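notes to self, project folder thing:

trying the whole complex as one job this time. last attempt i did each chain seperately and stitching them together was a nightmare. two parts in total, labels are on each line so i dont mix them up again. if this works i'll redo the older ones the same way
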Amino acid sequence: MARNKVAWRRVIFVILIIASLALLTVSFRESESGPVHSVQQFGAGLLAPLQSWGTKIAEPFQDGYQWFKTLWSAHRRAEELEEKLQVLQGEIIKLEEQAEENVRLKGLLDLRDRATYPEGTEFAVASVIGKSPTRWEAWVMIDKGSADGLRKDLPVVGATPTAGESLAGKGLVGKIVEVTEHSAKVLLITDSSSSVAAKIQGSRAEGFVEGSVSGSLVMDYVDRDIAVDPKLIIITSGYGPVYPSDIPIGVVSSVGEEDVNIYKEIELQAFVDFRVLEEVMVLMLPEQ
Amino acid sequence: MKRTRFAIVGKALLLLVIAIALQTLVVSRISVLGVTADTFVIFTIVMALSRGPLQGAIFGFFAGVVADVAFIQPLGVHALVYVLVGYSVGTLVSRLGGVNALGVFLIAAGAALSAQVLFGLFQFMMGPRAGFLTMLGTQMLPAAVLDALVTVPVYALLVRFRVVPASPVEPKTAGGVAE
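result (full assembly):
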């Protein structure tokens, strides 16, 4: 009995194998419109609505799963982006500083090209490394010294960030008053002990630009008969042993007269903004 | 006897319908390790584990035909593979005289892997030219593991709810079943 059952089992197994192979053979050999394909397509058509329902039912669960999944990775991504942002912000600051430095150095180059300097003049660009701690004096320390060829009484010009190609931001800074091997002290024209021989561009007016404790600039010794209008440009006159001519100093901001004074009182606004001075150019005039 | 047979056939049909529903509505949308489970082979293995080689083979044949229709594959591919799987699993379990949970897992893993290899061979002969070894690593092995993992709780659940018995109905006879 058991053996009959086993034999019967094997027969059915073989029948099923043959049936599968027959289906496979017919499926490959018949055309698309054959009966087997037709039955298959009919069955697939019956299952298609099930699959559509499945999509609709599964959609909210899939969306929920995706939401959790993206939430998890979003948190990590946010941390990564935060770090990247800080790095990029640091780089932006560096780039902005470099851009400003570029503008200032361009300004210095412009100064070098615009003014007329004695033959043999060389130029040394230096960075400001220190400033006077009190208002009693107005000076800056630069990072070049005698080792770089600097000496006392050399004129110094500068450029501070401004827009456009105008003179604004570029002009006379001062002169070197002390030198060490690798640094030098520059007395600014706004210092009360500074005096620069100057003239008003396009006019006969000449005088001296002097600094003051308040930091303002005044042009003195200009005859009161000479007409001076605001917005006129004041440049070095070249008289004296230090400053060559035609270096821009500033622009007239106000003109005053006193009955008892034979000279005009001309206040001027320096082209250079001494508060943000970072680079200067030393005019290394040939020794006389 | 007739009622028992009708009950067995009815439960088998019920399992088939559940397999279709689960595969189309749920399982095909859940991907684990890049593969989805195959409820047809899982239920074939369950049927073979509980009912023996004959019922396993018959169920495998009809499940395979339905799978070929559902997956729009040449008719007979899945049928052939599932017949072989069902018969082999049923025969093995009959010789062992019953299995525990680990046995179910191992048998299911072996059967699922064999099914995947057979499909792979078929695809290799007829279909896309992806390397066999590549398919082994990316499709066959992960699918076999996944099917085996799913088979264990499915089998336990169906036994628990008395849809299938816990072991093959026909015990080993004296002298052994000559399979």
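what i see at first glance: Chain A touches chain B at residues 2-3, 5-6, 9, 12-13, 16-17, 19-28, 36, 40, 43-44, 47, 50-51, 53-55, 57-58, 62 (CB under 8 Å).
need to look closer tmrw
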